[in-house]
């Protein structure tokens, strides 16, 4: 793999502006409803024991009200070299802090995948105004800027790691080290897989499953000491043919962007929206309400 792959990846991500399409809202029940089975998923310590959860049928999952999930990439100030499309994926530092303050002031509580999984399958109760924060691509600013900002608010997040970039210093951006990724995990955040080098999931064949799923999963599990259960599709692109490959590797949920969820496998097509660098906190608030 050539070193300049990171530049190629960055360019590909910026060119894929269509993933910023308007979200399709879907109908539902309230997030505070509970099924009888929800009482069975707590351990003595109060933590969720996902091993006891039976996957619900697709109709039941699709009927539940969607939890807002935000997708961020870079959090840094814009540079003169940043293009118009690229700025969609770059939220400036003060704007990001203001967005997080807006969420806190509005009463949002961050949740993590265990809680989402329990809710979607059993109707387990969630905090009032639940929201999930996700960060893609392993950028260093997610550790230096995002982490302390969220810590001050008592927020936790999911970090989807692209393993080709771990510890690298790129032309446009630096990337987190293994030690920093482990620290995020140890502090109660969730680490998920985002492939080796961001190759389009819809094009996987042959050895791609090993290179893009198996090897990155093994490395992340070695770093964190925890099993990888969450996967984010590069560019948000997915196909139904690839979902069985995720299932047999032990993934329990996979995250796309704003397109409609699959009617057969909604747990593997969970929706997120990209938090645009052009959005003010008010615009973000409106987008959350309109998209979910």
Primary descriptors:
33% helix; 292 residues; EC 3.-.-.-; Polysaccharide deacetylase family protein; two-stranded parallel ribbon; disordered N terminus; 9 helices; alpha/beta; 10 strands; NODB_dom
Walk me through this protein's architecture.
This protein has 292 residues and is of the alpha/beta class. Helix content is 33%, strand content 11%. The chain has helices spanning 5-15, 58-63, 93-105, 113-122, 141-153, 178-186, 208-224, 243-247, 281-291, and strands at residues 69-72, 74-75, 90-91, 109-110, 130-136, 158-161, 190-193, 230-232, 253-255, 273-274. Strands 1, 4, 5, 6, 7 and 10 form a six-stranded parallel β-sheet that branches. Strands 2-3 form a two-stranded parallel sheet. Strand 4, helix 4 and strand 5 form a beta-alpha-beta unit. Helix 3 packs across helix 9. The N and C termini lie far apart (39 Å). Residues 1-40 have low confidence and may be disordered. Keywords: Hydrolase, Signal. Residues 129-292 form the NodB homology domain. Its EC number is 3.-.-.-. Its main location: secreted. It comes from Pedobacter lithocola.
Low-confidence stretches: 1-40
Question: Proportion of β residues?
Answer: 5-15%
Q: Compute the gyration radius: what is it?
A: 18 Å
Query: Structural class of the secondary elements?
Result: alpha/beta
Helix content: 25-40%
Order of helix and strand elements from N to C terminus: HHEEEHEHEHEHEHEHEEH
Distance between the amino and carboxyl termini:
39 Å
Sum up the overall morphology in one term: globular
Signal peptide: 1-23
EC number: 3.-.-.-
Main location: secreted
Subcellular location: Secreted
């Amino acid at each position: 793999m050539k070193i300049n792959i990171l530049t190629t990846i960055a360019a590909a991500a910026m060119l894929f502006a269509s993933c910023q399409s308007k979200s399709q809202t879907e109908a539902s029940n309230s997030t505070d409803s509970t099924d009888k089975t929800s009482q069975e998923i707590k351990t003595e310590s109060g933590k969720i024991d996902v091993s006891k959860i039976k996957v619900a049928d697709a109709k039941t999952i699709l009927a539940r009200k969607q939890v807002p999930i935000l997708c961020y990439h870079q959090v840094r100030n814009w540079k003169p070299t940043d293009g118009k499309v690229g700025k969609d994926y770059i939220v400036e530092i003060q704007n990001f802090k203001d967005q997080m303050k807006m969420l806190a002031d509005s009463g949002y509580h961050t949740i993590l995948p265990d809680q989402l999984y329990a809710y979607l399958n059993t109707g387990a109760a969630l905090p009032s105004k639940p929201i999930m924060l996700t960060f893609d691509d392993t950028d260093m600013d997610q550790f230096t800027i995002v982490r302390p900002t969220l810590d001050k608010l008592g927020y936790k997040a999911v970090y989807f790691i692209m393993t080709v970039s771990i510890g690298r210093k790129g032309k446009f951006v630096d990337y987190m080290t293994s030690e920093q990724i482990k620290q995020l995990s140890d502090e109660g955040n969730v680490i998920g897989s985002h492939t080796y080098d961001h190759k389009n999931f819809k094009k996987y064949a042959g050895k791609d499953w090993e290179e893009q799923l198996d090897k990155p999963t093994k490395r992340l599990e070695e770093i964190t000491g925890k099993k990888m259960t969450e996967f984010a599709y590069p560019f948000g692109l997915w196909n139904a043919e690839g979902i069985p490959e995720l299932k047999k590797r032990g993934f329990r949920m996979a995250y796309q962007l704003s397109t409609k969820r699959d009617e057969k496998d909604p747990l593997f097509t969970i929706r997120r929206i990209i938090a645009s660098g052009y959005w003010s906190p008010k615009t973000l608030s409106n987008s959350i309400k309109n998209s979910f």
